[in-house]
Amino acid sequence: MEGLTDELRSAAGEEHSIDVCDLFFRFTLNSVAQITFGKDLDLLGAKYSAETDSPASSKLAHSVNEFVDAFDFAQEQSNFRLTLIVGWKLIESMNSSMGKRMKHSIRIIDNFVYSLLDERIASLSRPDRLKEAEHVPKDLLGLFMDARDERGGGLSRTELRDTAVGLIFGARDSTAQTMSWALFHLLMNKDLVTRVREEAAKVLGDQQGDRSKVTYANHKQFVVAHAIILETLRLHPSAPKSAKIALADDKIPDGPTIHAGDVLRWSDWQIGRDVTVWGPDCGEFKPDRWFDETGRIKQFGQFKFHAFNGGPRLCLGMSLAKFEAIKIMVEVLQNFDLEFADGWLENVPKTEAIEGVPSRYPVPAYKSSVTFPMRHPMMVIVKPHAN
C-alpha cells in the first residue's frame, strides 16, 4: 500500500489530475508479481515516472509495458473469439494482421512470465538461498513448485507458466477494475464515503502505526466497505459473460435439453440487472441490500451472486481479492479526498439506459474485453483528507 499512498500523496501535493484506473492496474500488477514471484516491478511511488506515465527507463520497465499492452490486446481478441464462439479461426486467418498480432501478443506474455519464472527458480536454487529459504515464507510460485500429484510428479515449466498467467489475469484485472468502479460509485454517492470513514474510525479508533491499518485479521469488521465491494461486483462483475460448449447431451431440471455441441452463454452483468433476480431496484447502486436485519453481510446463493463463480469452480482468490479491495478503499479514503477532475463526469462517454431497469445516473462506457474495464481513463483530483 505504501507505493499507492505515496503516489496519491504526490498527486495531492502537485494538484494535478490522475487516472486512477491506471494507478489501480499498476498497483495490482505490482502486488501479484510480489505475491507470485517475490518480485517488485517498481510500478508505484517514487520509482515510477509520472512525467512519462511509464516506469523509469530500464529493461524491466520496457518488458513490463510491452507485457501490459500484449495482455490487454489478448483480452480484447479473446473477447472477440468468445463473441463468435465458432468461426473466429477462419476470420483471423483471413485477417492476417489480426491473427499475427494475437500470436505476437501471446509470445510477449509467455516471454515475460517465463523471465520472472526462471529468475525466481534460479534464485531459489542458489546455495546461499537454500538455508535462508527455510525461514522465509514461500511465494505462490514456491508453493506451486512444491506441489506434487498422486504419482509424485511436480508441475512442468509450461504448467507453472499457465498457472502464473491465470493468477495475473485474476489478480491484476479483477481487483483493479472493481476498485475503479467502486470509486466511481463512491464519488457519485458521497454519503457512502462518510460511512466508510465513520466505520474505519469505529473499528480502528485512535490506534497508530500498523494498528491503524486494515489487516487480514480485522478486514471483516469493515462491513460497509465490504457491502460496497459486493454491490460493485453485482453491477460490474469482473467476468461479465462466459460460454460453455456441451460435450455430451444433458437435461437441465425444469429446463431445456442440451445437445452435444450446443453453446450455452450466460452474462453475470445481465443477471445483476434482472428484475426477477434482484428486484425492481436492480439498476441502482445500493450497498444496503447486502445487510441482513442484524447489520451483518447477507449471504446470497452462489448462482444468484455469481461474480466469484460457484460450486467446485468457486474463485480460489476470493478472500484475498475482498481483503485487498477493502484495504485499498478504507486506507485511501482515510487519507485522501477525491473528486472527479473538472469536466470529466460531464464529458466521459456513458452507457445507454436499459429499458425497465431504472438508475439514478449512467455509468462510463465499457471497454471491449474478457473482463470489465472502463473504456476511458477516470481522471480525479486528489487532496489530503483532514482527519
From TrEMBL:
What single Pfam family name could you report for this chain, choosing any that match?
p450
Q: Establish whether keyword Transcription is in the entry.
A: no
**Superkingdom, natural source:** Eukaryota
User: What are the required cofactors?
Assistant: heme
Look up keyword Oxidoreductase and say if it applies. Answer: yes
Binding residues for heme: C315
**Which UniProt keywords are listed?**
Heme, Iron, Metal-binding, Monooxygenase, Oxidoreductase
Q: Which Gene3D superfamilies match?
A: Cytochrome P450
Single Gene Ontology BP annotation: lipid metabolic process
The similarity comment for this entry is: Belongs to the cytochrome P450 family.
Name by which UniProt lists this protein: Cytochrome P450
Q: Which organism is it from?
A: Puccinia striiformis f. sp. tritici PST-78
Lineage of the species this protein comes from: Eukaryota, Fungi, Dikarya, Basidiomycota, Pucciniomycotina
